[in-house]
Specification:
The chain is of the alpha+beta class. It folds into 2 domains: 9-156, no CATH class; 163-372, no CATH class. It has 11 helices and 11 strands. The strands form 2 sheets. Strands 3, 4, 5, 6, 7, 8, 9, 10 and 11 form a 9-stranded mixed sheet that branches. Helix 1 runs antiparallel to helix 2 (47-70), helix 2 runs antiparallel to helix 6 (139-156) and helix 5 (120-132) packs antiparallel against helix 6. The two termini are 32 Å apart.
């Protein structure tokens, strides 16, 4: 990679560098689906959580595919119109949040752009004419085709946007029918850390109407959760605020999964032991990466009744905090994992740096092969 910018933002200004980057993430997203299957088998994820995670990973995959079309001709003459993909090359490895914000704006205008563009078949015929008849490289037509493919990807939807609003999955009803349990899930692209973050909350609903069909509560819940989806907030703060604001909703479990950072010797300027590991393992393009995975979980341990007004009473959750570091962590547990290919794992095992012994390692290989250590 030619860029030597010492800041945490860098543009991938050369075509081959940009394409390698997108190929790397395409492979990583594919591996994540298989890792999720292993986590499910190990009981780190349940069936519903695995399905939700798979969906959000698919959304990320579509987002990277769209961006790869947008910047297909980066470094070429026509590439100057859109510049180059900007990534956070320090402690993220992902595209900057600004890239997703621009993409979300483009999605709103995708239909108008597609309507004014020649068809894909028409652009292909034009390229052939320029190659055969005019004997020239059809650079500008190639650029037009790349932008058509970009807007087509955006128009298909199901991409990972800066904000992906909460959805509810029904889990069960209590035997008396007075309580319904739901799994709420939503995600954001952390604008400070430049990484995708997934939230999952199990709630019990004692309202008159089921939460997803409640025209009053559901929009309020969605707005509340999105406003609280900040990386700097502890899970305890989010859960207690939700518990206080919605008397008929009882958060039993809240989970936050950080997908990243992605480290790569060729693309990021990571610090600490992981830098030395990837430097020694550098070689094959397909093995020059490691993806961090951090999962925080907060669980309710009991319910207390709190009086409201003269005769009313509401349930309040009492959350279990981790021993020793619970107040600082604001969660019941926090687990760290590292997903990486075989060569970096081998170097990491040989170096055995302090602090990595308790980090779960998922070693990925060809096909569906995933080994956990």
């Amino acid at each position: 990679m030619n860029e030597t910018n010492v800041s945490d933002r860098v543009g991938l200004t050369e075509s081959h560098v940009s394409r390698r980057y997108f190929r790397k993430f395409e492979a990583i997203m594919g591996h994540l689906a298989h890792v999720a299957g292993v986590m499910r088998a190990e009981k780190h994820l349940d069936d519903r959580e695995t399905e939700v995670l798979a969906r959000h990973v698919a959304m990320l995959t579509f987002t990277f595919r769209a961006l790869s079309m947008k910047y297909l001709l980066a470094g070429r003459d026509t590439g100057r119109f859109f510049g180059s993909l900007t990534i956070d090359n320090h402690e993220s490895g992902f595209p900057t949040a600004q890239e997703l914000m621009v993409m979300a704006n483009d999605a709103g205008q995708a239909g108008r752009h597609l309507a004014s563009m020649p068809s894909a078949d028409g652009l292909k015929r034009q390229m052939l004419d320029e190659i055969i008849s005019e004997r020239q490289v059809p650079t500008r037509t190639q650029f037009a085709m790349s932008q058509r493919l970009y807007y087509e990807e955006l128009s298909r939807g199901d991409l990972f946007w800066p904000r992906n609003d909460p959805e509810a999955i029904w889990l069960k009803n209590s035997p008396d029918g007075k309580r319904r349990s739901y799994l709420l899930h939503w995600s954001v692209y952390d604008t400070q850390a430049n990484i995708p973050v997934l939230y999952l909350m199990e709630v019990e609903d004692t309202g008159r109407h089921g939460l997803p069909g409640d025209a009053n509560r559901w929009p309020q819940v969605q707005a509340h959760l999105m406003a609280q989806s900040l990386g700097g907030l502890k899970l305890l703060t989010i859960a207690k605020g939700f518990d206080q604001d919605f008397e008929s909703l009882h958060p039993k479990r809240l989970r936050r999964i950080h997908l990243g950072p992605m480290y790569s010797h060729g693309y990021t300027q990571q610090s600490g032991p992981i830098r030395d590991v990837l430097a020694q393992a550098a070689g094959e393009e397909t093995e020059d990466w490691a993806l961090a995975w951090t999962s925080e979980e907060l669980v309710s341990k009991e319910v207390q009744t709190e009086k409201t007004g003269w005769f009313g009473a509401v349930e309040r959750e009492v959350f279990e905090l981790a021993p020793y570091e619970g107040a600082e962590l604001g969660a019941t547990t926090r687990e760290r994992a590292l997903i990486l290919p075989a060569r970096p794992f081998q170097v990491l095992s040989e170096m055995n740096p302090p602090g990595f012994a308790r980090v779960k390692k998922y070693v990925v290989g060809a096909g569906d092969r995933v080994l956990s250590y």
